[in-house]
Design goal:
Elements (H helix, E strand, L loop, with lengths): L1 E3 L5 E3 L2 H11 L19 E3 L5 E2 L12 E2 L2 E6 L9 H8 L2 H4 L2 E6 L7 H6 L5 E4 L1 H9 L4 E8 L4 E6 L13 E4 L4 H9 L6 E4 L5 H5 L4 E5 L3 H7 L4 E5 L9 E7 H6 L1 H20 L1 H11 L5 H16 L2 H5 L6 H13 L23
Parallel strand pairs: 6-7, 6-8, 11-12, 11-13
Antiparallel strand pairs: 1-2, 3-7, 4-5, 8-15, 9-15, 10-13, 10-14
Helix pairs in contact: 1-5, 2-10, 2-11, 11-12
Length: 364
Amino acid sequence: MLTKDLSGKRYKLGALSVMLAVVLSISACGSGGNNSASTNGGSTSESSSTTTEPAAPSSSDSTTTTETKLTAVTQVTNWFAEPEHGGQYAAVSKGFYKEAGLDMTLQSGGPGISSTQIVASGKAEFGMGSADEILLARQNGIPLVAIAAIFQKNPQGIMFHKGKYKDLSELNGKKVYVGSGSAYWEYLKKAYKLDSVQELKYTGSLANFVADPESATQIYVTSEPFTMQQQGVEVEYFLNYDLGYKQYGNILYTTEDYIKNHADIVKAYVEASIKGWMYYKDNTEEINKVMQEKNPDLKLESMAYGAKAQEPLIYGGDAEANGVGYMTPEIWESLQKQLVDIGMLKKADPISSVFTNDFLPAKS
């Protein structure tokens, strides 16, 4: 779950606390295997055309035409429209979902909105989240399955003032603004022996970080560094993935039940989404303007920075050889082991049920 303060900065709450809240709220709900396309009230959404498309006339003189109905589906993102969702909005804007037979509604995430909860309750077919959220959800009885990893490297990181630190262990004794209970932070504290760090609650504001040159703060590398650049504050950052917490980001997921009953729709959704991400790579300015209509608070300059910063995280790594969205069992198993080691997972279940590459398009 993400949340946002009035200044427009975003931050991520601890995945464990999110999962506990989800479990409580859906304890009376099913596994989300129906075909509902309803949305959560209060959030913005974008839909592809809801009209049906006539088929080409037959060779006869008959004026009768047949209509191909689009299948209505909903995907919940993990925040308001931003570059991290560029491929999804491109797929709507350019008609890729419609071409795949889908009437797609993109429902924005935001304060108080959990995509895992909405998908698990059957109010949306697809969601977007991080790898640790998928594992924690499954432990708590929510049978989510990752069907594509948009980010090969999750864009979460730790930012500090330029030149201050060369190793994360140097943060001992310093103030660090971070969401309590975050899985990645629990891992980093243990891995880097941060036993005397001054852990302070991250509120979304960077004012305290700016005022204290010895401090550090959690960030998305696609966002906060640009904010600091605009304020003339020189910063550097560690990417959590490079620190050893290797997890995928902006994972597209659905439920086991939905895959079982609607594999053709899942494949159409994934292929159209990946097509959108390939389009966004070369047409960011066009799609950023589309997203800004949905999220006017986010300036085009900031979106341009984010799109550039996330390129190697999306299109690099295993995606170079295997295509956008590709996942490996090694990454999933390593993350699962880390969550077990820090006590956030009780045990390591077979990873084969957690993710699948079966719906990804063949790499050309």
